[in-house]
Amino acid sequence: MDDIGTNNHVQLCGVPVGEAEYSHSARTQDFFIFPLEVRRLSGNTDTLNVVIREDMLRSVVPYEKLCLTGELRTFNSRRGDWPRLVITVFARHIEPCGDEDMNLVRLRGTICRPPKARATPMGRDICDLMLAVNRHYGRSDYLPCICWGARAREAALWGVGTRISLAGRVQSRRYVKLTEEGAVERTAFEVSMTEAAVEYAVSAAGQS
Questions:
Q1: Neighbouring-strand partners of residue 91
Q2: Could you tell me the residue range of the domain that residue 80 belongs to?
Q3: Which of 49, 107, 180, 189 reaches 20 to 30 Å from 87, CA-CA?
Q4: Residue 88 DSSP SS3
């Protein structure tokens, strides 16, 4: 049986860039959400949505650095005129810190959608994956992942059902979606893979 606690691990150090706001209630507990800005080595930043229990609120002070560990969580939102996959970081532990910015994700799961290989206008190979990661109570989180170069060419050969473990970072990406009201800027979240190992392989060859 899988050790579910090792399937999904996130470690972040960054700066809250807004107040925590009420998110939802579950099992008699209230949960709050706030934006955390994490700087990349390039100097660019990712702004990630972090969910915490009410008793953690005192640790979140806008623009004062903190570190946290937790998990990536997903749910399908049907608010507005289109369904979308919402990705948040569910914090298990949080504390003020003075460490360098950090963004580390480790996942273990199963590919649940055929990989989508493509290339940038400059000819660099990219592959998009959807990874199903088991959670407690029989639930799963469905996490979009992306890889590049030689790893993308390898991932394009993986079939649905391939089980992998990976390391990387969770990143935010802005894009423009054309709607009936015109062009709308939106934000997508994905895991950028830096390492991956296949635990159980299923070839994409012959899959429809």
A1: 70
A2: 4-105
A3: 180
A4: strand
